[in-house]
Write a structure and sequence with these properties.
By secondary structure, the protein is mainly beta. Helices cover 7% and strands 34% of the residues. The protein has two domains: 183 residues, no CATH class; 243 residues, no CATH class. The protein is built from five helices and 39 strands. It has a 22-stranded mixed sheet that branches. It has a twelve-stranded mixed sheet with strand order 2-5-8-11-14-17-20-23-27-30-34-38. A three-stranded parallel sheet has the order 26-29-33, with no helix packed on it. It comes from Vanrija pseudolonga.
């Protein structure tokens, strides 16, 4: 008698060493390996292979790792490709301290699949500590972010994201954007990553008090980016808690040259501080509080280099512009008109009427002609600006355009490219420092370790 097929297939999961799981392994079997592997288990994927995932791989125990065998670099890393849902990897449920995602590529498959609401392409963090994401490429997320480190119940701590290459993420069309890296875990580090063509924020910091974002390269090459590094969100660390959050020594580049300008490649706000910069009056009197933004270098095309509004007890100091820069953008259809209309594009913009105890270096420009000092003006909902139709991009090493631009009525003249002083850097050290307190605000207003590999054996039993 022959046993029916549903009963005839017996899957045996056997721990062994020295073998990666091939891409013929189903999503269900890959997940079973993690579930049965226990604490410290390493799910080893084969180099140069693509794994189609109908469901995200979910870490199941502490100190587990998902990685490519031999830790290869570049395109040899295994590809986890989303073919169902929006996410390839999940490490957010409780009990996953020490989870590690290393040396893999995550293809969100936007393009073959339409954009969708849902989880980020990579979801880590949650109520966990000491997680690691390194040497990972993440691109073409279907949903809102290529890589998200979630806060859980505000108990996530000490996640490190490093040496990753992220992007492209999202599209230029209104509402089709996606972040590169989204950080909401406290006391964490985002460092030594490259984010290219994220269309929402390159690195978005959702409070994440005590965290550091340092030595990253963020660049718009073929499409517009709303913000390079954003410190604008009121939630989840209510109300905008950025205490001891530091943004240090990052390089942010807008587009260069004719090829890039054809795609509208610019960063609308290089570094955005405070909810008003992003959301206008949506959050009323709420502010971003307690962060430090220091030593960052900006080059290329922006609408605004750094913009600060609705902030308290921030230090913004010693940031600079290098090489050819331009501050360009046309008024878009979503820009506020009248008395609350945003200031035209400029290098450094501070909405002094909304700042308390904020230290700005350089200080407020004594003359409008000083391009590299802060200008006092309305910094509200600045992402409404759109790439200009005029050829106003600075010279530089552009990349051929591959994406369409957003469009809208042109009402504001663009600015011409500007070259920084002969020392190649316009730096804050040459200017005064302004500390904005409540009194000054009123005045300004008038102005694999042990590797256990899984051998998947499928036995079909017949009984005669």
């Amino acid at each position: 008698m022959r046993i029916p097929q549903s009963l005839a297939v017996l899957t045996l999961l056997t721990l062994t060493s020295g073998a990666c799981l091939p891409n013929s392994t189903s999503s269900t079997a890959l997940q079973a390996a993690l579930t049965q592997g226990g604490a410290g288990y390493v799910l080893s994927l084969c180099p140069n292979e693509v794994y189609d995932l109908s469901q995200p791989l979910a870490f199941a125990s502490p100190d587990q790792e998902i990685s490519t065998e031999g830790y290869p670099a570049g395109s040899a890393r295994a590809v986890l490709r989303v073919v169902g849902g929006t996410s390839a990897v999940s490490g957010t449920r409780a009990g996953l301290d020490g989870a590690r995602l290393r040396y893999v590529q995550v293809d969100g498959n936007r393009g073959a699949l339409p954009p969708a609401t849902g989880a980020a392409a990579i979801e880590m963090g949650g109520n966990n500590a000491n997680q690691l994401i390194e040497h990972v490429r993440s691109y073409d997320a279907r949903a809102w972010s290529c890589l998200h480190v979630a806060e859980g119940d505000l108990r996530c701590t000490n996640t490190t994201v490093q040496y990753c290459d992220v992007g492209p993420c999202g599209q230029a069309d209104f509402g089709a954007w996606a972040d590169g890296i989204s950080l909401s875990c406290r006391d964490s580090a985002v460092q030594f990553n490259t984010v290219t063509d994220a269309t929402d924020g390159g690195v978005v910091v959702f409070g994440a008090p005590g965290s550091v974002v340092r030595n990253n390269t963020i660049q718009a090459v073929t499409r517009p980016m709303l913000g390079g590094i954003n410190l604008v969100d009121v939630v989840p660390w209510v109300p905008g808690n950025y205490t001891h959050t530091q943004v240090l020594d990052n390089a942010i580049s807008g587009g260069f040259g004719d090829a890039a300008s054809a795609a509208g490649a610019l960063v609308k706000v290089g570094i955005a501080i405070g909810p008003r910069v992003w959301f206008g009056d949506k959050y009323g009197a709420n502010v971003s509080t307690g962060g430090v933004v220091r030593g960052n270098v900006l080059r290329g095309a922006f609408s605004f280099g750094i913009a600060v509004a609705s902030a308290d007890s921030f230090v913004v100091a010693d940031n600079s512009f290098a090489g050819e820069v331009a501050f360009i953008g046309d008024i878009g259809p979503n820009c506020t008109q009248g008395a609350l209309a945003p200031h035209p594009p400029t290098a450094l913009l501070a909405d002094l009427a909304t700042l308390t105890n904020v230290t700005l270096t350089p200080g407020i420009s004594p003359t409008p002609a000083d391009d590299f000092a802060f200008v006092n003006g309305t910094a509200s909902a600045l992402t409404c600006f759109i790439p200009p139709k005029a050829a106003a991009w600075p010279a530089g090493q552009g990349v051929p355009a591959v994406s369409p631009v957003d469009t809208g009525a042109s009402q504001t003249p663009t600015s011409a490219p500007r070259t920084t002083p002969s020392n190649s850097t316009a730096t804050a050290s040459a200017h005064s420092t302004a500390t904005v307190n409540s009194a000054a605000r009123a005045i300004a207003h008038s102005n694999c370790l042990t590797i256990a590999h899984l051998l998947l054996i499928t036995a079909t039993l017949f009984i005669n």
